[in-house]
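INPUT
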Amino acid sequence: MSLKTDNRAFGVRTEDGIGDAFMRGAVGSAQDSLKTRRLTAATTLGDWERWRELGQQIRQHTLENLDYYLGQMADNVERRGGQVFFARTKEEASGYIRQVIENKNARKVVKSKSMVTEEIEMNHVLAEAGCEIIETDLGEYILQEDDWDPPSHIVAPALHKNRNQIRDVFADKLSYQGDETPEHLARFARKVLREKFLEAEIGITGCNFAVANLGAVNLVTNEGNGDLVAALPKTQIAVMGMERIVPTMEEMEVLDNLLCRSAVGQKLTSYITVMGPRAEGEVDGPEEFHLVIVDNGRSDILAGEFREALQCIRCGACLNVCPVYRHIGGHAYGSIYPGPIGAVITPLLGGYDDYKELPYASSLCGACTDVCPVKIPLHEQLILHRQNIVSQGRTGAADRIQMKAAGKFLSSPGLFGSTLRLAYSMTKLMSRHGRIVRGPGPIEGWIGIRDMPQPVKKRDGFRAWYENRERPDGAAAETEVADRTARTAGDLKTTEVGPKPGRDVSVEEASSRIGRGGDNA
Amino acid sequence: MTTSFSQPDKRNPAGSGGSNRDAFLSRVAESLGRPRRTDPVQRPAWKHTVHLDTLADRTTEQLVEVLKEQCTFIHTQVIESTPALLQRTLDDLIAGFGGGPVIRSGDPRFAEYGLNFPGGSVWSPDASREDNVRRAEAANVALVFADYALAESGTVVLESRPDQGRALHFLPAHYIGVIQRDRIVPRSTQAAAALNRRHEAGEALGSCINLISGPSNSADIEMQLVVGVHGPLRATYVLI
Amino acid sequence: MKVSIFSTCLVDLMFPGVGRAMVEVLERLGCETDFPASQVCCGQPTYNSGYLEESKQAMINMMLAFEHSDYVVGPSGSCIAMFHEYPHVFAGDPQWEMKAIALKEKSYEFTQFIVRVLGVTDVGAKLEGSATYHRSCHMTRLLGEAETPFLLLENVDGLQLEPLKNSDNCCGFGGTFSVKMPRISEQMVDEKSACVAETGAEYLISADMGCLMNIGGRMSRTGKEIKVMHIAEVLNSRPAAVKGGIYA
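OUTPUT
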């Protein structure tokens, strides 16, 4: 797996997602349940906004001093007997890991879930080197057995698969003979994977947070696979994106609390572990420990206007509330990082050539920004991407012409006035029964599936009404506001002396303009 | 420049702390628009103390209640016992899980409470790595004493030591953590602070610190919770 | 109290009744209104599409149009939220930053103005029937106003509010999103329409004509029966004959 999971065009991938009824049902119900769980966890904790601000401050402080903390981390890992490799590119990172394994003449590798190892195409490189790599996170294992189907969610990678599909994969690839009950499937995987853990020579983990002053790696899981990966094999390689670091366990603790609640609505997940190389006298744990710190484009992000994106703690909360992700699923993003955070960081890591559609795959509803536990202004960053795409001349000619024209028209009272004057007659040929039924490019996308009212004649418009109406009697109006205020205060005996009768005709105004009842269907 | 570190030394791929380290960190500093920062950075005064304040005013008795309630959400049974009854409580639990083999840590508190598990094994630095792992893998029940317990999250905190390995917590099918009431703190904040304090005072912490909150579980199949995946199938805390 | 009306382009082009209702309610509540005729659009369509420079011209036009206003009130949480974004857009711009801040500080969405500035939660409206309310994302999240429509609707005589499932999900409008990503927008509006239909309400109410045009237009096309009303129209609904002092 690499950052890119699909070479087809965005539109094709989106259609695939939209057409996958099971996936959409699964994503929808997962979102509904995770959303509620997150909200409950945040509410139970209390002071959530302060927690978010604290999380944001910790992440920003760490990023502002990233060189220092990475240096401190490296010193401490080495002090504990581990080795640290700083990889500027994905090739360097996976090349180093391959070299470590080859130096040990090892072949059997177990790994726990790590997005950055996907990003550096590690599995591919290690497979080429003849290693047997086993993903031990249940979701990842299912995907691996299904011929490396890409993950579709950063926390629940196999969210798009149902139990029957999983049973079939296990039956085909592993001669599983049981039924599709999740518990049975999980028990089967436990048994198969237990053997793999016990015979593995190399364990590869990700890193939720590096703890700089301790020289340790923090892993947050529910299954316990990460812990077995770090306990049993004699060599452990931990891989981290360079931004995933905290000063001490005290800050780690705050972020773990935000992470667990935001990701799955748990106070803490079952296993939170802070680990390093085996210490003198201890029995298990890695005798040889390597930490690979990956840049792979992150320093460019750090230098630019998207720095806040590096605050991300990979909780997936933004995916769980995103209405676009809800309908197209993770694969449509064509990246191992889907959803709103994926739409922000994928173009930064993979470039606009391949990913310039992603920043537009958002209605800018702001749900992502609202839930982000470290306050990344996600929807604003999507707008920022759009600005860059425009300023780099990457939008189509038609879009440019339309938008430039719109810019003129929306800033000129004169042009807009003419439009109000002409809109009705200009749209006359396009309309029937007060609805627009055909039109050029952008309008087509709208009226293809929705009714759209025809603009009104200028003399029927709001501005004409406002100019020509009778002004109300100011004194009487003053009385009414006193009346209304009193009413609010609960004194309902005040006499109603409104200056103008309400207009019953306005009651259904918007309704009659928009149309009702599908008479145009 | 980049090619020089894309070809790591075959013997010692990371080199001496990585010749690539300086270039890498300089680039990070450059991205931050300033020279390399190597003098110790002071953490700022954090603008909120929510983590310190949460549950901070609870008495031990109240914390026990918080812990017990939380455990109902994490599929973890809590049994209240006493030092005098502890052996019996544990024996009953083990029997309830179908008996041994039992493996326990070498924690001195087992001796202090006069606990004995005939036929059981002990994680021990005197045995080989392979033997310890084999016994843990064969064990039906693991027994440990918690260093701290976190009320809010229903968590036991344990440090690795020569007589308490990492795999001990994960290989056996059932996991029993004994919690002494005076080791209960409000939440992860206090445990993290205590561990960090010890570290900063120069004490060597275990190479692995585990915060364990109940049995292993997964919701990777259709978001349906399955309890017991790679780690223990069941977790039980005994409060004394 | 002097209030400048910000009509918004959709109201100007297609929904005169909404502007009318807003003006009538505000005047009935004692406000003196004016309509700065040089106003056009808040600039959101181009801004959200990434055309920053093109948008700035529209924004400058609005800052000038409302330069002398005490309050600016508009029938759209989304357009007002755009005004609130101006200081961010013009941050550090010596000529416009202060004007952007000034416009932000005096701009209110219609229901927000009634409740937060006028201090009124019962405007004496009467509308018989059941309704469901769609919260627009921009009003709720970007403007940060989630309460005022409900405070006002609760006091509409005869109106029964039905809860809307998944009310926090976007309806799929998103301005240019609906035409740039029509297929995704379609899925979103279909789910929203289904949730609206499920309430069985007679009226669909919102404080943003963009969302209403989207949901209402889709429901109309797919034959789902519902009457669409902007909240200004609801608040301007009065008993057929004014009977002095009785209906209170």
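end of record. Chain C touches chain A through 115 residues (CB under 8 Å).
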